[in-house]
Amino acid sequence: MPTIEQAVKAYITLRDQKDALKKQQATELKPFSTKMDKIEAWLLRELNSNEAESIKTVAGTCYRSTRTSAKVGDWEEALAFIQEHELWSMLERRVSKAAVEDFIDAQGSPPPGVDIVQEVRVNVRR
Fold first, then answer.
1. Which phi and psi (to 5°) does residue 57 adopt?
2. Which residues make beta-bridge pairs with 110?
3. Which of 9, 80, 104, 122, CA to CA, is 20 to 30 A from 95?
4. Starting at the edge strand that comes first in sequence, how are the strands of the sheet with 61-72 ordered?
5. Contact criterion met (CB below 8 Å) for 70 and 100
6. Could you tell me the residue range of the domain that residue 106 belongs to?
7. What integer best gives the mean pLDDT of the chain?
8. How many independent structural domains does the chain possess?
9. 3-state DSSP of 15-84
10. Burial code of 75-97, b = ≥16 C-beta within 10 A, e = fewer?
């Protein structure tokens, strides 16, 4: 049986080796990610210029998707609004994206203090 000191030392050594491997992999993967980002940007431009949501090819399909995120720009204002209207479903450690989207659908705009960010991305599948 190892001592606690030996176990701690082994754990730290393994953690350091794991971190070094992650850094090495990140470095090795960067050229792939950069090229894929450029292809995604080009595909999105093509989808936009063709006014298409998706384009199917023999090799696969590229399609647009929108990712929505809701972040609070002013906590005091947002929290006061949520409390006043008893919209507790909007609260998590962050505001609930789904509840904010429902609110926008019903009211036409986000609640006060909440900023909406939508990112249109291109996806590729086989």
1. -130, 175
2. none
3. 122
4. 54-56, 61-72, 114-125
5. yes
6. 64-126
7. 93
8. 2
9. HHHHHHHHHHHHHHHHHHHHHHHHHHHHHHHHHHHCCCCEEECCCCEEEEEEEEEEEECCHHHHHHHHHH
10. eeebeebbeeeebeebeeeebbb
Residues 10 and 68 in one domain: no
Residue 110 scores a pLDDT above 80: yes
Residue-level pLDDT at 78: 94
Please check the confidence at residue 57 and state whether its pLDDT lies above 90.
yes
For residue 81, which of 59, 62, 55, 100 has the smallest C-alpha distance?
Answer: 100
**Is 57 part of a structural domain of the chain?**
no
Nearest to 95 by CA among 67, 113, 68, 71: 71
Taking only the tens place, the pLDDT of each residue in 71-109 is: 899 999 999 999 999 999 998 878 999 999 999 999 999
